[in-house]
Hints:
Two copies of one chain form a homodimer.
Chain A: H1 5-24, H2 31-38, H3 42-54, E1 58-61, E2 67-70, H4 79-86, H5 90-93, H6 111-127, H7 130-140
Antiparallel strand pairs in A: 1-2
The complex binds iron/sulfur cluster (SF4) (2 copies).
One iron/sulfur cluster is lined by residues 95-97, 99, 102, 107-108, 110-111, 114-115 of chain B.
The structure holds a DNA duplex.
Amino acid sequence: MLFSKGCTYAIRASLLVTTKEIKDGRKFIPIRELSDELDLSFHFLTKIMQVLTEAKIMESFRGPNGGVGLARPAREITLIDVIAAVDGLDLFSECALGLPGCGEKTPCPLHAAWAKRREDLHRMFEKTTLAGLAKELELNALRH
Amino acid sequence: MLFSKGCTYAIRASLLVTTKEIKDGRKFIPIRELSDELDLSFHFLTKIMQVLTEAKIMESFRGPNGGVGLARPAREITLIDVIAAVDGLDLFSECALGLPGCGEKTPCPLHAAWAKRREDLHRMFEKTTLAGLAKELELNALRH
DNA sequence: GATATATAAGATACAAGAGTCTTAAATCTG
DNA sequence: CAGATTTAAGACTCTTGTATCTTATATATC
Ligand code: SF4
Ligand code: SF4
């Protein structure tokens, strides 16, 4: 898999929080509500949301009417932010073969082809904001 | 990581076998020689080469002067063959978010962008043959 | 203040990946 | 045939990722 389970959960949950914030105008969404709708473990999602909170992508609030919400406007949060917080960015800097000490100076024969696509992927996730995804989701009634 | 450790070892070892076959004209290379030069565990590499042998990518021969060698001409073995044998091709058919039952009919908002790059990656590994890599390696004195 | 609701934090359990080791079978050489 | 070499097969260990569970802590409502 390209991303860890936790990372994909983080993306899906962030997107759901975004749509709920935009559509219903709510500031904090309980994690239980998210885990129910996304059909995944509440406890596991809790831990992941804690990571996003620590990374200043989410804000949290305890007690009744508490939950998690975006710490910044949805158009300022990119998928790279979420990926970096959960999985790190090794995928976009390390290489397909993972040779020790590899790089531009001493490349393996796969380097040119892989590095190009690696950077393209990085740019793609960097340009994709939660606001953009939420908008696309609403326009086309896509799944989440 | 994009590929498992075993898969990257498989690629590196296949490539080394290819260059040895081409340059030295040897049919079988002992796995110990490969593991020594690639600086990785002999026993682990043995297990991986067994997978490649089972997949008809390599041929093996026991006893003195034995070892492993390419089962087909190097220009007919692609990286996709090696990847498919060790890691499988899920990476190129599954999606970034791994939603259950996802696909063209009910796509998530990431689908279009990801599917395009996923197929591009698949094509890249499909077009890359061991012979091509070995040639590039020799021409430019690249690492392996 | 008492109680219910929610996240925070960390202990624990389970599964999968990565790596090691041992024994068996095949092959060559002398 | 005897002994050395080399892969085959599988048991075993260690580490990491995934998931669950329990106990704290903060907050709101009454
Ligand atoms: S040279 Fe490039 S492609 Fe090759 S192992 Fe290093 S980073 Fe990866
Ligand atoms: S719709 Fe496409 S991008 Fe979205 S989860 Fe499914 S395969 Fe992946």
